[in-house]
Amino acid sequence: MPILHVDNVSKSYGKHQILTNVNLTAETGQILGLIGPSGSGKTTLIKLIMGMDVPTTGVVEVLSKKVPNLDILRQIGYMAQSDALYQDLTGLENLSFFASMFLMNKSERKDRIAYVTRIVQLENAIQMKVSTYSGGMKRRLSLAIALIQNPEILILDEPTVGIDPELRKSIWQELSRLKTEEHKTIVVTTHVMDEADKCDMLTMIREGKVITTGTPHALKVEYEVSNLEEVFLKAEGVHRAH
Amino acid sequence: MRIRALIKRIALQLFRDKRTLALLFVAPLLILTLMHFLFTSNEVDSMLGVEGVSNEMLEQWKSNGLDVVTFPINSDVKKSILEHDLDGYLVVKGPTMTLTLENTDPSRSKGLRAKVQQALVGNLNGENSSEIKTNFVYGSEETTFFDVLSPILVGFFVFFFVFLISGIGLLRERMTGTLDRLLSTPIQRWEIVLGYLIGYGLFAIIQTIIVVTYSVNVLDMILVGSFWHVLVVNVLIALVALSLGILLSSFASSEFQMIQFIPLVIVPQVFFTGIIPVDGMPEWLQALSRLMPISYGSDALKSIMYKGYGLSDVISSLMVLIGFAILFILLNIVALKKHRKN
Predict the structure, then answer these.
(1) CA atoms within 13 A on the CB side of A68
(2) Which of B13, B185, B339 best tests the A interface by mutation, with the highest count of A CBs <10 A?
(3) What domain range includes position B222?
């Protein structure tokens, strides 16, 4: 039973078609990569999965429930493309505020804050105002907030955009740990191909359409190439030919 | 619980933003003080025309700093005032005295009358019990400009600053993406609206207390009615301003665009606060004035502060304010659908 199921979804704003007949499935404990250039409709797809917006046609199901559904949001940790943080509050106050949104009691809140702070290694900066944070620290705090309610699914929109290689590596290490140790299902969008290699399943999107899907290995075999960049280019060519 | 967290967060953010706090709390005081002095400054000597007055009395007034011009008996009072640019004209006919005041500037008329009275009492040693009859060329006895204006100003500043700060508060939340982030949690849309209303509402209450206390105690603003009634009306005005501010902020995509609402939304309201008498306006303008929330607020404030009415006397204005607030709150909850469909 897939934990996340996007069934033949299309989305248009007025005459502008953003997504066309998208199908997508994620199993529990998988890292699913959504690969595509900017403007391909990844962020719109994520909005539909979160239930922030509704598809024009088709159905999105998360944990066997149709979205939009407010209760499902409790099981989804979301990290937006830009750091949506309260700059004039401290890291701790940000975490505490979002924890309150999930109606955690005081001790629960304290435990989770301590835990996620340790995971993203922000223990020393947690009392500082976010406006004093570096770009990397803000990304880490955003990840910590996404984890605060201990969700089953993590949805990360370009989690590593604009950060240094070292931090990128540590975020990916953390994602695989969350997958293997805590059995989280992770949906991550990226346009960096070497990150795509670290996903269990890939779905490649272009101009609002899924052009190919499969494990990184299977895709390379299918298209008889050695890297995912070429898979994308070839799949795109095949897709155009159709 | 979620609402409480929201309120706490808003309070924390505002407390850290000292400039905004100052705008909210100090700016209205500065402007009110300035206006107080602008409308009560009457350093220019008043010109008084007289007829039938003894030379002794003339000397007395002159030493009191009055410019006195003597006119022949039975002159046309109004004509003399207008032609000679007088501030007042006193006719003494036996025991009856009639003072006619020009009264374009009520505070100046008040000062002139006090001076004339003072001089008379000093001169006649209280033996003359006859009162001075007072007529006015313009306006009436009740008109004192700052007194009429001040309740309106109090309401207006509460409205203006709360509108601006709450509107920009939510706007910033939208622009930085934290609103979307917030809506990706199970919070209900009405919880966000309510959290915002209460969070900023608390500051609006503090602002009102400061503004009214300062105006009454420091600026000697007239307050015939109850302080608490004034507070209630101002809180309602603030509620309308808050809900309108956050509603309009969803139609602005930058702080600059939010500022653009000031000439569109705020300035026209000033014209309908009663500074210009609504009764004299053409019918379509009167209809327009009924659409302006602030006209109801300043009406209620004027009645309480100036005429000494109680809340029950202004209940209809208060109900309209509550109606506006409820309307804007509901529209806000709908407007948030733009960001999350459920």
Answers:
(1) 18
(2) B185
(3) 2-38+144-338
